[in-house]
Design a protein that fits this description.
mainly alpha; single chain; two-stranded antiparallel sheet
Amino acid sequence: MPNARAQPALTASQSEALNRYNQALNDFKSVLRQRRAQIDAKQPLPNLPGQALYLARNALMSTYKDLTDALPARIGRPNKFAIPPAYFDADNEPLIDEYLRLFSIMQAPPANAQYSATPFRDVVDLGAAIARARGLDAANADVAGRISLGIFFAESNGNQNIGNARSNKYKGSFQTGVSESQGGQTRWAAIKPSIAAFDPALIERDTTEEERIGKLDRRYNHWINVRDALMNAHADAFQYIPAIVRAFPDPIDQMKLFELIQIVPTPTKAAIRSGNIAGYRVSDPTIMGYLRNNSMFTFGQADRAKPSATYREILDAMWLFNEKFERALAKFNEIKAQKK
């Protein structure tokens, strides 16, 4: 009988990439087990208990991308999270399932959080009303509502009033800090009379929520947090929606652009005002660091080595957000169908 065909020996760099990936996989499993044991035993968790999980997940995906760069044959089948197969081995899906379960526990809202029975519709209605008050027509106000819903899914996966296992600063449905919440509250007071003129029912709802909140942290009332976050970060950019739609007809790209206002507001608003959003280039190392901390250009040595990027490249690098934005788009279409 002929001998079985021998597998080619790995080069030194391929072997190193494989070892680094195996170590990252073991580290990810270890930190998952540690957090699960602490939670199940009701032990106190460390400060920012999600940070170690997040960094371990990033290391897993990053080293896998380095491995598939070195050994393209390791690129496997598609996975249920729609992560490009070059970045993620589908055999590890159960690990990400556990990762998400742990975060849902660690970021659970406080017992006194104030929920809405219509959280998705609230986001759409507030975004559209703010856009109308900024002078947009009905069609573009609808786009603002759709974009706002995308931000909700990006920031909290569509969950109301969550905490944050990776930050002591950001809380709530739109993940704002106290100063951002206060800034939005002030801006809302200025625009409120304009909205009352065309949508008194929305203002009536707003008054009810203001009375309800009492002395609670304002970020833990869903309506109030969404309203203040949109006013603080996004309202001024709504006026550019007609131009943004012309430049980026894909609704997912539109959501990505406004999510970048959450992450890197100054360069994103400058890009929007530039008249050439897609070609606007970011090269500041600090800004590139913020992008990497939010899962852009962070997986694999080639991505991390990028010293700069255009906004078209940044939008394309936001593939980890795609699944959330697709769910937001489906939910928006469902809401619009119900209204009809």
